[in-house]
Amino acid sequence: MKAMMLAAMVTILVATPVLGACPALVPADSAEAIRNNQDRIGCLQREAATDAERKTLEMKLRALEANQQRLEMERRLQVLQTIKPPPIPAI
DSSP secondary-structure letter at 59? Predict the structure, then answer.
């Protein structure tokens, strides 16, 4: 269940990239240029935070998938251990 939720969140984050959405750098000293550059810095910080969150979720998802595979393999081995081969008939 957690894996499905994380997968959905990762899909949403990956499907809606915001890279390139920040305004361009304005090389000037006017109040408007400073305000625009502050907005750009805020946008870049949000992009970095979103990217870090996406990578964290991807790592958690990979860990959950690995754990699920390990549990499936353990279950399969337990089933194999409970199956006994048929007795060999005496001739």
Answer: H
CB 67 within 8 A of CB 51: no
The Cα 6–Cα 12 span in angstroms is 10
pLDDT, average across residues 58-78: 95
Whether 42 is in a domain gets the answer yes
**Global pTM exceeds 0.90:** no
Q: By residue range, what is the domain housing residue 54?
A: 36-69
* Nearest Cα residue to 24 out of 10, 44, 4: 44
Q: In Å, what is the CA distance from 23 to each residue of 30, 41, 43, 55, 64? A: 16, 9, 8, 24, 37
pLDDT in tens, 44-57: 999 999 999 999 99
